[in-house]
Amino acid sequence: ATIISDLYAAILGQQFVLFYQKQVDHLEQCIGVEVLLRWIHPEKGMVSPLQFIPLAEETGLIVPIGEWVLQEACATLAKWSLESEKQHLSIAVNISVVQFSKDNFVQSVFNALEISGANPQLLKLEITETLLANNIPDVKAKMKELQQHGVTFSIDDFGTGYSSLSYLKQLPINQLKIDQGFIRDIINSSNDKAIAQAVITLADSMELQVIAEGVETEAQRALLQSMGCNTYQGYLFGKPCRIEELHF
Ligand code: G
Ligand code: G
Ligand code: MN
Ligand code: NA
After folding, report:
1. Burial level of 234, CB count in 10 A (0-12/13-18/19+)?
2. How far is it, in rounded angstroms, from Cα 121 to Cα 90?
3. Which positions fall inside the EAL domain (predicted)?
4. CATH number of the CATH domain containing 73
């Protein structure tokens, strides 16, 4: 079987699971999670999204897969809303450019919210600069419609794309996510540190939230905090894991 027919089988056979990774504040209190898709292949075991998302995008299969991720994430939000220690937690969902660009994307998000009863304010959509590089009017209209219902947006892998910064003031963006590529060597690389500082300062002056991803050491966290970044995600606080393994 080819990986394409395997992908079809995966959708039909419910071989996808969501992993969850914590996002924490400066007190290391969990404020939310990012959901990360995993494919449990019957023979190959766990397959990384890096290995199948490009193919899922080429074949269009990312659309039903992405809808499933949204529905699962919203179902989790609805479940957490009934638990006092979890009802404040947000869930961030990665959205593919291919998925976002579909005419019915906004409706598919509203459907997931309505079916589950999830609070839209706690749903954060992670989009990339690639999306913002083309067809700004369409992107803007969709983001505004979702924002009007409370959904928020985070720019994933910020600083790695090729888009113009002018979109930052045109679009309803709530958060910039500093790419882990700038965090990895932030202690020793003055260039990475300078870029991270620029993102933090930019976010600050535009009244956007900022989160650093790929934080693995306390030294990185402390440095980021001294630079004005107070929200973090990374192995230091927890690896992506199954929902049962999340401890708050
Ligand atoms: O967990 P990590 O290996 O877990 O993720 C690798 C890449 O796959 C990241 O760039 C991440 O944004 C992407 N990714 C993870 N889950 C999803 C998903 O549900 N949808 C999309 N489109 N991308 C995802
Ligand atoms: O592109 P995106 O930010 O959606 O994907 C996040 C990716 O980073 C996932 O593959 C996730 O498993 C991975 N990740 C999360 N925390 C860490 C970390 O602390 N270190 C490293 N190396 N990778 C991480
Ligand atoms: Mn992400
Ligand atoms: Na990222």
Report:
1. buried
2. 8
3. 1-248
4. 3.20.20.450
The answer to the question of residue 225 being in a domain is no
For 133, half-sphere exposure in the C-beta direction (CA atoms, 13 angstrom radius) is 8
Q: Which of 180, 183, 184 to mutate to test the pocket of ligand 2 (most atoms within 8 A of CB)?
A: 180
Q: Which two tokens stand for residue 157?
A: 């892998």
* Beta-carbon contacts of residue 188 (< 8 Å; ≥ 6 apart): none
Q: Whose CA is nearest to atom 5 of ligand 2?
A: 36
Helix (H, G, I), strand (E, B), or coil: what is residue 55?
Answer: helix
Chain mean position to CA 117: 21
> Residue 107 is which amino acid?
Q
Spatial CB neighbours of 111, under 8 Å, sequence gap ≥ 6: 71
Whether the pTM exceeds 0.95: the reply is yes
Give the residue numbers spanning the domain of 138: 3-173
Element holding 210 (H helix, E strand): strand 209-212
Comparing CA positions, the residue from 31, 34, 138, 129 lying closest to residue 86 is 31
**What is the domain count for the chain?**
1
User: Residues 213-226: pLDDT tens digits?
Assistant: 999 999 999 999 99
- Answer yes or no: is 247 within a domain: no
* pLDDT single digits (tens) 143-171: 999 999 999 999 999 989 877 788 888 89
